[in-house]
Design goal:
about 375 residues; alpha+beta; Carbonic Anhydrase II; disordered N terminus; binds zinc ion
Length: about 375
């Protein structure tokens, strides 16, 4: 399964993917979606967006702030060049150390410059405080690994969290780049209700097995997949960037919440973002999720690079019916214009699998956002 040629590839690929996302907008590092080329213009604001799990580039924040951010980034060396240099050093060391072993590769990227890849994120919930989850789960404010400090260079685009003074209700005020989190009218997640029952074209999933990387980015467990997986819908092809987890689940269906959700983040060639959301309830163990948990890094910010292949389609429910609406990323910068595909059939995880994630992130879900008259369609 592993050839010398392919062994190093996923490391390079995933690291570059993170770098690109970090550059372009919201730092895939902590984030879900790589940024769309089309959004790149406004997304170059990106040193800004660097912390978005839902993350795409395409922050539609204050143009002045964007210019400032660009100027700041331009004043420094090209972050991508710096990353390449660092990667080449890391890869050299990694390969030497591995000597052909088949165990997963762990690499760490620490203290990156602003706009560069930031794997060492603000510890989620590091500060106590009130938020919807804190209320329901006292004492969860500081996760067991929340002690590692975030980087100090957070000036323009400050850290955010799910709890406390930089929790969801303040995101829109933390940075001009996050403004949509506060004033956006088409935000996610939502309570999906009153969908129009129609005949919806099922998404054509073309996910493929490949190597993957797992990182605890400070906001979630983020899995980055090799290029080549995609789904087609409405004549468009949306490339899969990766996926991550929320606990509890962010989406609600007719008011009902779920134990967790999985967000598979995509973008098409024109930069349009699409998230496929999976509702997760407790039940049978989920082998695909177990594969990810098996690769959890021991330290926040470390990337565990798989030496086995994984097929993301193993995550999907068998029933292809879904709800769909237009929304946003659910993390700063809360970019709008995101096509949401919420699969109707839940998938399961075992109670133990849920507890494993809860050890890292007892609560990493954004509160429900107003629907604001948006249309929801659902497969009948
Ligand atoms: Zn998400």
């Amino acid at each position: 399964m592993l050839s010398p040629r392919t062994r190093g590839f996923p490391i390079i690929w995933s690291a570059l993917a993170w770098a690109l996302a970090g550059l372009a907008c919201a730092g895939l590092a902590r984030a879900e979606t790589a940024a769309p080329p089309a959004a790149r213009a406004d997304a170059r604001a990106a040193p800004a967006a660097k912390a978005a799990p839902e993350a795409a580039r395409g922050s539609r924040g204050d143009p002045k702030a964007d210019q400032k951010a660009d100027a700041k980034a331009d004043a420094k060396a090209d972050p991508l060049d710096r990353l390449r240099e660092r990667l080449s050093r890391q890869l050299g060391a990694t390969e030497a150390a591995r000597g052909g072993a088949t165990s997963p590769t762990v690499m760490r990227v620490e203290n990156p410059a602003p706009g560069e890849l930031r794997l060492q994120a603000e510890p989620a919930g590091a500060r106590g405080g009130a938020s919807r989850a804190a209320a329901g789960a006292p004492g969860v404010a500081a996760g067991p690994r929340a002690g590692r400090p975030g980087t100090a260079r957070e000036g323009v685009h400050p850290p955010w969290s799910y709890l406390g003074p930089d929790g969801p209700h303040t995101w829109g005020t933390l940075s001009p780049a996050y403004a949509l989190c506060g004033r956006g009218q088409r935000q996610s997640p939502i309570d999906i209700t009153d969908g129009l029952p129609v005949d919806l074209e099922p998404p054509q999933f073309q996910y493929k097995p490949g190597f993957f990387g797992v990182v605890d980015n400070g906001h979630t467990v983020q899995v980055t997949v090799a290029p080549g997986s995609a789904f087609e819908l409405g004549g468009r092809r949306y490339e899969l960037n990766g996926f991550h987890f929320h606990l509890p689940g962010e989406e609600r269906i007719d008011g009902k919440g779920y134990e967790m959700s999985v967000h598979l983040t995509h973008r098409d060639a024109q930069g349009r973002l699409a998230v496929v959301a999976l509702l997760v309830r407790e039940g049978e163990e989920n082998p695909a999720v177990q594969t990810v948990w098996n690769h959890l890094p021991l330290e926040r910010g470390d990337v565990v690079q798989s030496t086995i292949e994984f097929d993301p389609s193993a995550l999907l429910p068998s029933d292809r019916r879904y709800f769909t609406y237009m929304g946003s990323l659910t993390t700063p910068p809360c970019t709008e214009g995101v096509l949401w595909i919420v699969m109707q059939q839940p998938v399961t995880i075992s109670p133990t699998q849920r507890r494993i994630f809860a050890r890292l992130y007892p609560m990493n879900a954004r509160p429900i956002q107003p629907l604001g008259g948006r249309l929801i369609k659902q497969s009948r």
